[in-house]
Design goal:
heterodimer; A: 361 residues; alpha+beta; Butyryl-Coa Dehydrogenase, subunit A, domain 1; Butyryl-CoA Dehydrogenase, subunit A, domain 2; Butyryl-CoA Dehydrogenase, subunit A, domain 3; four-stranded mixed sheet; four-stranded antiparallel sheet; B: 400 residues; 3 domains; 12 helices; 10 strands; 43% helix; globular
Amino acid sequence: MEFGLSEEQRLLQDSVNRFLDKNVSLDRVRQAAESTHAIQRDIWSGIAELGLVGMIVPQDYGGMGLGFLDAALVQEALGYHVAPTPFTGAAILAPLALMLAGSEKQKERWLPTIASGEAVAAVAINEATGVREGAGIVSSGGKLSGKALFVMDWAEADLFIVSDMSGGLHLVSPETEGVSLQALNTIDRTRSFGEVVLNGAEAEKLPGGSRVVVERLVDAGRVMLAADTLGTGQHMIEKAVTYAGDRKQFGRVIGSFQAVKHLCAEMAASLEPCRSLVWYAAHALDAVPEDARLMACHAKSHTSDVGRFVARTATEVHGGMGFTDLLGLHYWFKRIGVNRQILGGPEQVRLDAARLQGWVA
Amino acid sequence: MDLAYGPKYEAFRKEVSDFLAKYRDKAPKGLGAAGRPSKEACAWQQLLIEHGYAARTIPKEYGGYGAEPDILVSRIIAEEFSAARVPAGLQNQGISMLVPTLLELGTEEQKRKWIAPTLRGEVVWCQGYSEPGSGSDLASLQTKAVLDGDEWVINGQKIWTSTAHEADMIFCLVRTEPDKPKHEGISYLIFSMTTPGIEVRPLKTMTGHAEFNETFFTDVRVPKDQIVGQRGQGWFVANATLKHERGMLGDPSAMEDRFQALVDVMESETLDGQRAVDNPILRDRLIRLQAELAAMKFNGLRLLTCASKGEDPGVARLIVKLQSCELSHQMSALAIDAMGEMGILYDDSPYLRSHGSWQWGYMFQLGLIIGGGTAQIQKNIISERGLGMPREPKLAKAGN
């Protein structure tokens, strides 16, 4: 019985964190945030060289063949550093879609180039968790029409993986006729989201595509977003504790006031159990199929709620400085805010959890 | 991440379940958590000790089973008893607090005299720590003991002495060195509750029941050698056992069972013919709690793994009391809200649900949030020990 990380997983965490500590300074994040819809090639190629872009891709296709728990640890580290790079879509959900639904030929064509970081694949599955603005892709006679919103890792994508409203999955090249693209500017400038509008566009179907596969993509995406918030929130708590240990008012460091340190204790008390929840939800995707869907819902919704509490509270501990751009704390605040809504906000996700347990028809 | 226990532990699990299948008819129905155990409960305890399912790691010469500590083995025992709905061994303050203290710091004579009968349930203990003026600031306690010849003479008052009305003995913190700094002036005494000069008064709480007592000492005379550890070292004696993991091996599925009972309430209570679980707001609250419960369950498994490997889990351990008391309280609150007006019924009212246990729980769990280190003290511990934040500056002249 071992509920925890293996030696290899700890080494993986160390190597990712070492790379990000070195290459993703606050200044670098600031600079990247000026051009959200451009891939920061130095960071992207760095994480590709570490093998992270192909981490869940089987070794036969040039990847590392690791599991979702490993992926969640990397995502957590990326959140901790507010790393301005594609990952959730391009490195996890896109290869996963190909692995689950692609033909042998499609896998051979795309998985190695995705794993190497050569091809960046964006993922359009947000409508599977709910439709706004009349979005949704319809497949008819081998052509796709409609629009997909909040496409993940949208910027400079070489390939779009698009789910249609009946659970089909398709590969769409941005060069195809009938494809138009529009950037969406969110509060989080460290990751790119956009819109894909298809007007009778040619697409290549993934033969294994189905609602079940799309659900699997949603579950994996939710666990990754939860892991991202876990890391992001952890960083905010550490920042708040450090700031409260430096800042003096009334002749004392403010961290010695119970009013301040109890806020920090509440943040830690609510976030720390999320770590075990995210670990288990990711492990369940790997190894406990009967728990996987519900735990993905729990991880996403609970971590989103805790994340919001941590984001506002850590900012508040920083007082006026937290509100300014000077400390850059807002990058973390905003990343948590985006993770909360993508692939379903907490209430929507809990509705899914209710359905899974037969509490809603 | 490997949630399987492996063949060695699974073989042990089989032993436990075989034992339970064979002997479950001998188990007492409803084992009182504290207080004086029934004859049947004592016999059951004896059987459990003989098989190593109670007092497992206590040395044989002191009446235990004498096995090497293995937290996974202890966990399996707890899991199997819980799954079989069979009461585990006695769990009272004598067994959970006094026995480990004596094992670590008692004299050989004290160990031989007290541990075995305590384990067998023959000697019942109460804890004399808190005082009306010393709650969170326990080390400021004022009950004093003065040496008069070969006897301590004790005067003062204790509160929250939960089993005092039934206890044979008390382990008690008293001030013996009034001139020393507060933490260094305390001694740890053990004495009989039948000693002249002790008066126990029930302390009725908001639940309507007297779950606790107040205990008064007037010139209570106790032999000088009934001290554990050195004179003036009582604070450290009392804290020595706190470092041992406690509370982890209660019924591991108790909270999940309570959640299932909450689900039952949500699925059976109706308003205008609509089940509570069909109300989107109540249902959202239910699933929120389900997620928190899952998080705490997995946090518990993480702690178990850390304990089995001798690793310090840090913050993950310090938050348990704060978070789980709050979660229990929220579960009771939701059950009451799901029942609405029916949720306010109490005592022996018509239409009473679940014997009034949700209202009782809602009140009693507030007591648990306050007792055993208040939520505010827990937050001090989390921030100071877990996050390394500074302590509150001491006042220029601290009172005792």
